[in-house]
Amino acid sequence: MISADDLDAFAAENGPAIAQAATFARRCERGLPPDRWATTAEMHQVARGIWALTRLVAIQTALLADLADAPAETGG
Questions:
Q1: Distance from CA of residue 48 to its chain's centroid?
Q2: Distance between CA 56 and CA 28 in Å, rounded?
Q3: What residues make up the domain containing 61?
């Protein structure tokens, strides 16, 4: 099971990259030309942010599958 410490460590390690990926997406949504979505230096962070978000989706999917497989608790 994933602990709060695991989540904190993931956020600390990947937070800046996720933020850069979000900035990249916002710039796209604002209609800026693609060459202004990120600088060359920021592109590595964007890629890491996308990877981190993909990993989060995988973690959430696994947790939801575990919840679906768990027997329903009955109230007493």
A1: 10
A2: 22
A3: 15-67
Q: What total of structural domains would you count in the chain?
A: 1
For 18, the token pair is 């996720």
pLDDT along the chain (76 residues), means of 10: 87 96 97 96 96 94 89 64
Nearest to 43 by CA among 13, 17, 14: 17
3-state secondary structure of 4: helix
The pLDDT score that the predictor gives to residue 29 is 98
Residue with tokens 């009955």: 74
Dump the DSSP string for 45-70: HHHHHHHHHHHHHHHHHHHHHHHHHS
Q: How many other CB atoms are found less than 10 A from the CB of residue 41?
A: 7
